[in-house]
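Figure 3 (text version): structure tokens given as input.
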């Protein structure tokens, strides 16, 4: 048999009023009803909860423990109901993940939103595409910005603007590079997404993907803010989202190799399928959609 909350409520009132009569009046009960609840609670606990003397009583040590437990139980229930109904659109934690390139321009906007709404906490994690999707599935991330996803794996998405991809080299190379093949012979500065971006270039130029493995690689680094350092030193070229170049402190000594047509990849704002996000995410989603010129087209 579970501990009856009605008995606990009667007991709390009895302890606080120190009167069977007042307890009965407050709870719209009879005095025998109050006594019956006390007897049942004492029987359940196996301990005397009050010590009577005349018409008065004192609470026992065991009674104090039960009283404290009863208070915490009801407070916990009240807190739970408040949390269930609490959906302040300007307060709470929003967990977001995106690539390092997207974070370069987005993080400043999120900080500005937090300045405007101090009780809103934006946690931004930098992660590759597949890890973002994995974290969304696990529930450790609420929203992710990705370049590809599978709708049949439990995601829903809103289409954002495309992300421009650029082939970048040192400005000192201008006038010395006659073709993309010539550029490739100078060496490639690879990074975690390097071959993915390079395959997009090869696809546009109708080059066989196997050629990527034959191309000389002159460096590798997994820190976005350092990828362009060997490029400016003339050690090789690389391929990155254009935003990474625009935010680089080295942008004035770099230039883009001009391709026949611009290259871009899709960008999506993704959440777990059929998950209803709290109201606080409205301002974050609006900010991301506006920043990346997103449409209202939910996929």
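Below: residues designed for each position.
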């Amino acid at each position: 048999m579970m501990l009856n909350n009605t008995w606990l409520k009667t007991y709390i009132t009895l302890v606080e009023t120190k009167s069977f009569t007042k307890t009965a009046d407050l709870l719209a009960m009879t005095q025998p009803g109050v006594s019956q609840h006390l007897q049942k609670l004492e029987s359940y606990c196996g301990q005397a909860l009050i010590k009577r003397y005349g018409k008065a009583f004192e609470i026992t040590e065991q009674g104090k423990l039960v009283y404290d437990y009863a208070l915490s139980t009801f407070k916990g229930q009240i807190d739970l109901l408040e949390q269930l109904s609490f959906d302040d659109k300007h307060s709470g934690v929003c967990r977001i993940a995106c690539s390092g390139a997207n974070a370069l321009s987005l993080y400043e906007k999120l900080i500005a939103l937090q300045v405007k709404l101090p009780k809103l906490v934006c946690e931004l994690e930098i992660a590759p595409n597949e890890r973002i999707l994995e974290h969304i599935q696990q529930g450790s991330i609420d929203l992710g910005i990705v370049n590809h996803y599978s709708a049949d794996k439990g995601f829903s998405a809103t289409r954002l603007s495309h992300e421009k991809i650029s082939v970048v080299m040192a400005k000192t190379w201008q006038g010395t590079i006659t073709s993309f093949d010539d550029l490739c012979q100078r060496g490639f500065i690879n990074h975690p997404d390097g071959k993915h971006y390079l395959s997009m270039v090869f696809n546009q130029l109708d080059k066989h993907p196997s050629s990527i493995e034959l191309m000389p690689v002159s460096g590798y680094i997994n820190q976005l803010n350092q990828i362009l350092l060997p490029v400016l030193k003339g050690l090789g070229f690389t391929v990155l989202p254009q935003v990474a170049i625009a935010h680089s402190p080295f942008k004035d000594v770099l230039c883009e190799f001009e391709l026949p047509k611009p290259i871009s990849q899709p960008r999506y704002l993704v959440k777990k399928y059929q998950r209803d996000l709290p109201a606080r995410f409205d301002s974050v989603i609006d900010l991301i959609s506006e920043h990346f010129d997103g449409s209202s087209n939910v996929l």
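The first strand starts at residue 50 and ends at 53.
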